[in-house]
């Protein structure tokens, strides 16, 4: 009898193991390269990913990059590996040699990466090699990444605990407030010469207008004292940090960068910093830590000593939840293509994780495919003004290696539930705009009438001479706040799941094309929607430019009208400080 029971138990155990194995074989695999010292600090993250249905496999970081990649390929079939996480810093300096400041314990926790010879960017920077994390993600050796990859560049279990806590808090957050639809941009000044600066400006304008859905709110901070989007230059550092601390879906910097700081703001007789390593301790985005995107040089130099700005921001408890940045000099054209690719993956395709957005954006740099109208325009501009005009294919391929996700590739992105809207002036009272909509969730709704992206509600300032008085400089802040306030009229109301109706008050002299936006903050999610509305008598239009907004598309969910006053002076690349 006992023998029968033992046989029965043995068979049940075998069946259970087989079933478990079969289940694991069907689950997407996450491969984590780490040192044993990180096991305990990583445990909550592993449990969280397993609860989401991932098969998490841990492999050792010991040995050479070739040995590590061999373990990655052996731990699971290539078709099952979907994510790869490197846990640990780089053991090398920017020349590719062993870092001299590492003690043996810290070096043992590092995850090395091979170096690739720089071919395009060597004309603009002193580095001859690029750290190639992307090499690990290329499972079939064709030079194109196959899996989503990210690095958590931590040096100690305590640092890893803080990063893991921030990642889990982000994914588990039940704060579905307005930060979920906020996009904050910070832009530097080009300084490449009038022709290239103008091309970058125009390309950036078209890219933002065409690729960002109208139901997102956008702020712009410019380090150019002649624009309406410039705060008091003396407070540019504080304002840059404020936009990080406000909380936003994405926080994006476009400008010059170095390993440990962003390019400063120059004004006649003075220079002011934007953001540097020392500012990491001042970050406190408690409501919604952003995904930070740096379209700049060097900010993501993962082999920098001391550590680069991107690493410091990720490790800051109040800093961004993830950072996308380049490890060396980066070129304006390829950064524009990379930025458009990310926007397409997030805003149009709504991929479930940040790592997948990065993966497909990188693949879009090198693989043939149907081009959007904005991409076609950017390619055409680059072929005319880029210093690498004859080698654009090689330039884009090099940026697959240059750009890294410094963060968790499994990071899940929450998207808004779609709200449908209609809007029209009241037939009996033209000062009232009737808005009707349908929300898939209940909650607190904000319905607003807003100017299109970049359209000012006042004449822009004409600043030909830099002011020196305190009062004149303080006025910059008031103008900056007005420029970033696109709201014309708004109403707040509770809504149930289903149909809702409200009215907005219209100013007497309002005329033109506007956006009606709705945002619902629910208990278990959020929703947003937008509809374009034409109000009053349309002003007589000027002759449209050769390339009009109507001709351009980045496949956004909602087309936006052509704004008139938004002219960011952007520095998208370059090795020198602005």
SSE topology:
Layout: H1 2-26, E1 29-34, H2 39-51, E2 55-60, H3 65-75, E3 81-87, H4 104-108, E4 115-117, E5 129-131, H5 134-137, E6 148-152, H6 157-172, E7 182-187, H7 194-211, E8 217-222, H8 236-245, E9 250-254, E10 265-267, E11 270-272, E12 291-295, H9 309-315, E13 322-326, H10 332-348, H11 354-366, H12 373-385, H13 392-402, E14 403-406, E15 417-418, E16 420-425, E17 432-439, E18 443-450, H14 470-483, E19 487-495, E20 498-505, E21 512-521, E22 526-535
Parallel strand pairs: 1-2, 1-3, 3-6, 7-8, 7-9, 9-12, 12-13, 15-22
Antiparallel strand pairs: 4-5, 10-11, 13-14, 16-17, 17-20, 18-19, 18-21, 21-22
Word description of this protein:
This protein is of the alpha/beta class and 578 residues long. The protein has 3 domains: 27-151, Gingipain r, domain 1 (Rossmann fold, 3-Layer(aba) Sandwich); 182-406, Rossmann fold; 417-551, Sandwich (Immunoglobulin-like). Helices cover 31% and strands 22% of the residues. It has 14 helices and 22 strands. The strands form 6 sheets. It has a 6-stranded mixed beta sheet with strand order 8-7-9-12-13-14, sandwiched between helices. A hairpin with a 4-residue loop joins β21 and β22 (526-535). The radius of gyration is 25 Å and the shape is globular. The protein starts with a helix and ends in a 43-residue tail after the last strand.
